[in-house]
Amino acid sequence: MELVAKILIAIVALEHMYILWMEMFAWETKGKEVFKAALPAEMFKPTKGLAANQGLYNGFLAAGLIWSFLIEDPKWQDNIALFFLGCVAVAGIYGAISATKKIFFVQALPAILAIIAVLLK
Fold it and tell me: What residue ranges are annotated as transmembrane (predicted)?
């Protein structure tokens, strides 16, 4: 179960690195494709700065999850991973409510599965 937990944490971290890239550097191209159901096309240019700020926060989530791999104490490693996974899950649930339901399955569900794996290991 430990390997499963680490793989799921890594997937969530990689996903948030991708979100960082999309929101900070590709908001008007890839972001427009991903969020076309949640935001009118003409809103991507004026919201570029806001999206970049969101991307930075997603980068912090990825950094925290990556940091959890570098912690030697197993209890602290789990605590740090659970904290950042919890943040991702809450953000994904909020995004599903406020933007599009797809965010729950793409963002919150992987984090919730990783939380379960960490707790079961």
Answer: 7-27, 55-71, 80-97, 103-120
